[in-house]
Predict the structure.
Amino acid sequence: MYLAHFGLAEPPFSLTPDPRFLYLGPNHREGLAHLIYGVGEAGGFVQLTGEAGTGKTTLGRAMAEAPPPGVDVALVINPRLTPAELVATIGDELGLPPCPGEGSLKTLVDRLNRHLLALHAAGRRPVVIIDEAQGLSREALEQVRLLTNLETTTRKLLQVVLIGQPELAATMARRDLRQLAQRVTARFHLVPLDRRETAAYVAHRMQTAGATRPIFGAGALALVHRFSRGLPRLINAVCDRALLGAFVQGDLTVGRRTVRRAAAELQGRRRPHWSWGAGLAVAGSLAVAAGWWASDLFRTLDRATVASPPAEVHPEAPVVSPKPRPSRLEALLQEGALAGETEEAFAAASSRWGVDFASLPGATACERVVGAGLHCVYGRGTWEAVVRHNRPAILELARGDERHHVAVVGVDGDDLLLAAGTVEWAVPRAEVEALWGGDYAILWRSDPPLPELLRPGESSASVARLAELLGRIDGQGRRHPSGWYDAALQRRVVAFQHSRGLDPDGLVGEQTWAALSREVEGTAPTLEVPSARRSRVVHP
């Protein structure tokens, strides 16, 4: 409807995952690199996770439509399949003729195995990409694992890429699926775009659609990022509706007011009217009789949508309820005392580690602190989970349509200390929890650097480090002569995980490394507030 108005050849913000519109920002480029690396490995699994709308499916489609040389891709987009249906679907996607009759699971697997051997003999490498993999049943996941057992004497015959929401990582961490988790050779988590990346994303899609000039203003792009929280799917929805609104108004650019109205309608806070309003605009232009009202359509519609007065008008003055007084936390956010931007929150938390965040390079906040020798661990849980880490944390808060990030640097009774630069504000914990959905990030440091995941059966210098940390905690000895992550060491890890409220799966990942480190680091910043520090805390 609005393409000719803006000089576009095609819709720039379609919700379908078209790889031509793929924007490879730093995080997405790294995610695609993990997929390509994993596909090059000889068997095993690649795991790509991210919140809904972060662009996981688009990356998977990009890989499927332009695979590396010699790679055949089977794309499975419906995870709600039985094991037999899943095997049959993989065979169909890899070009295997349909099985005559119903066919048992054994028959389907045997036919697929023969087909994989034929592909291997032809020098081809088959890869299965399963989208929305968090929806796979336990039985289907187990069948996928068994398919990776198909092999020759020298290599696996099948590579599997699992793409899903964060629930997939939680599923893979279950103890009954540990054999599957141990076969993951590459993991990556996609994060939302930051404000600069959001602007670049919009510009990229507009240019791909044929735009020859900027259409979204800087202020409009800032609001797009705020309303979408950097999620590409929401960016598409807001921008598409904003372009329609600008078209209805007769504007050649998109401003803040148009984006704000677009977001309000998408969230159901305004009655949609652009679709029929656009029809009126077209009819008016054809009749050459109503062109004068296009730029004031929103104002006209605002007046039209005001509710009619009641049939009986009483002379009494209406009772006006006073506006509720904002909480201490909301007042700080409104006044700008707590900026709420991701960068400011990470800067406040990293400063407690003696790190100057502003001087660090990197595309995302996590990348920047990692470059300074810190670890950045994302998690989701209760406040008790954050307290167990006992390290400065970054929380994501939701206030209406807005998302804020704050740094929690101390706990003082029922108050949390939120940092803004060098100032610490005391805010009731109940107010923070009222706006907090459970997402957090923890910063911590280890020396020497440690791997992302240590599995039973592995042998590396990190095994000795693991035994040394455990020995300082459980008193069972810091030396581990075998050098292997054996059953005895695994039992100690499981006992430690259980005692610290972690998933006792024996896999030593970021959460377990962080818990081990905080037990032995005497100079690291904690959430404890000494009396000398309380005098400097501001109580608004």
Summary: The first strand starts at residue 44 and ends at 50. Residues 270-322 have pLDDT under 50 and may be disordered.
